[in-house]
Write a structure and sequence with these properties.
- This protein has one domain (8-195): TIM Barrel (Alpha-Beta Barrel), CATH 3.20.20.
- The chain has 7 helices and 9 strands; from the N terminus they run ββββαβαβαβααβαβα.
- It has helices spanning 34-47, 62-72, 88-97, 107-110, 113-125, 143-150, 164-180; strands at 8-10, 18-19, 22-25, 30-32, 50-54, 77-80, 102-106, 129-133, 156-157.
- The two termini are 15 Å apart.
């Protein structure tokens, strides 16, 4: 059933739609205010089994992120990618302002593995989730699979099972599971804070 075995995670990349404090939905020939877009997402969360929303608002719409988090943060994972850019200063601000409740982690975005780990630990200390992610122009390097398991993030974003650079990461996760044997534990629904108690 929808929401039990299959759920939806969205990445609408709304920064691309944001201009002059509005969100332009060109294909629908309409413009939404931040409040209207928050209402839009709230409606979709009611109607569809959405468990995660990445970049639901633009990277500089801090007031909007606070509003979105107040409205949906206890029901849906709200992932800051463009908002946070794996940056501990931006993450600290988001934690203080309650703008989002999860961070997308891109290993080569912040600079070093140490800084990446610091961002993940900072998020965890605040009760946030971290999603380890690939980058566009990715190679077959599987480091992010190891990082996701080693840091117990419970989530990895590496695209559909369609191209070799993506499949390599999923295959690495399977090999890690084999290596861990009985100690391997699938996080499942618990990876999503709002669903962990369901």
């Amino acid at each position: 059933a929808p929401g039990e075995q299959v759920a939806i995670a969205l990445d609408p990349a709304t920064t691309e739609l944001f201009s002059q404090d509005q969100y332009a939905l060109a294909k629908e020939d309409r413009v939404l205010t931040t409040d209207q877009l928050v209402d839009f997402w709230a409606d979709w969360v009611e109607r569809y089994p959405i468990v995660s929303l990445e970049d639901g608002l633009a990277e500089d719409d801090w007031a909007g992120w606070r509003s979105l988090t107040a409205r949906l943060g206890d029901r849906v994972q709200l992932v800051g990618d463009d908002l946070l850019v794996t940056n501990t200063q931006r993450l600290g601000r988001a934690i203080r302002e309650r703008a989002a409740n999860a961070i997308l982690i891109k290993l080569n975005q912040i600079g070093t593995v140490t800084e990446t780990i610091e961002a993940i630990e900072m998020a965890a200390a605040a009760g946030w989730r971290s999603v380890i992610s690939h980058r566009s122009g990715e190679t077959e390097d599987t480091t992010i699979a190891d990082l996701a398991v080693a840091l117990n993030t419970g989530q990895i974003k590496t695209g559909s099972v369609s191209r070799s650079e993506r499949i390599a990461k999923y295959n690495r996760l399977l090999r890690i599971e084999e290596e861990l044997g009985e100690a391997a534990e699938y996080t499942g629904r618990a990876a999503f804070q709002a669903l962990a108690d369901d």
